[in-house]
Amino acid sequence: MSNIIEQVRQELINNSDETTKESGKRFFKEEVRVYGVKTMTVSKISKEAFKSIKKLSKKEIFDLCEQLWISGMMEEAFIACNWAYAIKKQYTEDDFLLFERWVAEYVTNWATCDTFCNHTVGTFLEMYPGYIEKLKDWTKSQNRWVRRAS
User: Which of 22, 35, 77, 102 sits CB 3.0–4.6 Å from 112 for a disulfide?
Assistant: First the structure.
């Protein structure tokens, strides 16, 4: 499984360029770690790589997402968001704790926050609206990204 992560990272490196990297950094007040790959290219890399993991279990896919989140690289976070969203039909109520932890531990800028929350968390809440109440706790978090996610 880690082989796919290595392949994704190599594709990101192969498609990075300094101009995109510098341009991307200007959009954020906080420091961000980026390869310098255009969003459309990241999406293509994500979709292509997902073909080789789509038959894995939800847990295995979420484990791969976690590996991507841990890197702290924005493009890898976007791929983690895409992969988690790609298996939305498999979400169960138990996934809320994982999604909550990902927001608290790995979301470090508005782009990853909005991408993850508008798709994965939003879809989860449409499926399980009872969890909307839990977001009220997020509004009181010391973590600004958890607050934004709420």
Answer: 77
pTM beyond 0.85, yes or no: yes
DSSP code of 107? -
Residues in Cβ contact with 103 at an 8 Å cutoff, skipping those fewer than 6 apart:
113, 116, 117, 121, 138, 145, 146, 149
d(CA 136, CA 149): 11
Cα 141 from chain centre: 20
Residue that has been written with the tokens 């976007």 in this structure: 78
The enclosing H or E element of 37 equals: none
Helical residues (DSSP H) of the chain, grouped into ranges: 2-14, 18-25, 39-50, 58-70, 74-86, 95-106, 110-116, 122-127, 132-138, 144-149
pLDDT digits (tens, 9 = 90+) for 70-129: 999 999 999 999 999 999 999 999 999 999 999 999 999 999 999 999 999 999 999 999
Number of domains in the chain: 1
pLDDT of residue 30: 82
CATH number at residue 125: 1.25.10.90
44-84 pLDDT per residue, tens: 999 999 999 999 999 999 999 999 999 999 999 999 999 99
